[in-house]
Amino acid sequence: MGDQLRRRALWAMVGHAFFRFESAFIIGMTLVLTFLFPRPFSFWQPWYWVILGAVAEGLIFVSTLTDQEEGRKVVAAMLQEQFNPGSLKNRALRDRIARGLEYREGIERVIRQARGSVLRSHLEDDARQVDRWLDHIYRLAQRLDNYYQDQVIKQDMHSVPATIKNFRARLALEDNPAVREEMEKTIAQKAAQWEALQRLEDTMQKAEFQLEATLTSLGTVYSQMRNIEARDVDSGRAARLSQDIADQVAELEDIELAMDEVYVRQNS
């Protein structure tokens, strides 16, 4: 996912370089000069304008693609598109994803300011892992958002306990054996449903706490990456940081699987 995001960011920068004002101006002037002033000098050939325009356009492309601040803005925009907080209905979840995007933007800034190719390469590897991490965070937030908006689950959480209580009260007064048997089956089914609802609620609460904890860890990783230096690549500190990121990704994957299993079981 990280490599895909970077490819998209590169193409976005290329598009930005092509459509920026300076580029449009050069293309326009090249066309005007080529057709209106094809030979301003005796030695001049019309295609000279095209060559000059292409050189100027190439300089704009190079300056855009190597502009660190421009690259940071493009990556930030790509992340906003990939992990759009606005798609979440729950405000708290939107705020958490926005915080994660701020950390990732800061990490991109650290990479661009890194001195030394070895350090930068290592940080870029970590950033790709962070992109996976952020992807899992976003998917976790989406699952929680769906759960919060699930009106059927909300209704069942309120109605099922009341239904069980009502049926048990009626069972205590029922004398007909056949009716009692059916009521006992219904109570057992409702009890199983209530147990599944409680498991789902427990899993979602755990996921909510995990979301906050993993965002805190992401903030810690960002702070550590800001302080890492070239000599740390060989000292083992950088390797430990990479392992911490990998552990966080693996833990989120486990949480996602648990959420899916419980939710699917509940809705089956």
Describe this structure in words.
The chain contains ten helices and no strands. It has helices at residues 2-19, 21-36, 46-65, 68-82, 91-113, 117-149, 151-173, 177-227, 232-235, 237-267. Helix 1 packs across helix 3, helix 1 crosses helix 4 and helix 4 (68-82) packs antiparallel against helix 5 (91-113).
Q: Name the beta content range.
A: under 5%
The count of strands amounts to 0
Our measurement of the CA-to-CA distance between the termini, rounded to an integer number of angstroms, reads 31 Å
Poorly predicted runs of 5 or more residues: none
The coarse overall form would be elongated
Report the average pLDDT across residues.
83
Radius of gyration, rounded?
29 Å
Helix content: over 70%
Oligomeric status? single chain
* SSE arrangement, N to C: HHHHHHHHHH
Structural class: mainly alpha
Largest sheet: number of strands, sense, barrel closure:
none
**Count of discrete domains:** 2
Which key terms come to mind for this protein?
elongated; 2 domains; mainly alpha; 10 helices; 268 residues
List the helices and strands and how they pair.
Layout: H1 2-19, H2 21-36, H3 46-65, H4 68-82, H5 91-113, H6 117-149, H7 151-173, H8 177-227, H9 232-235, H10 237-267
Helix pairs in contact: 1-3, 1-4, 2-3, 4-5, 5-6, 5-8, 6-8, 6-10, 7-8, 8-10
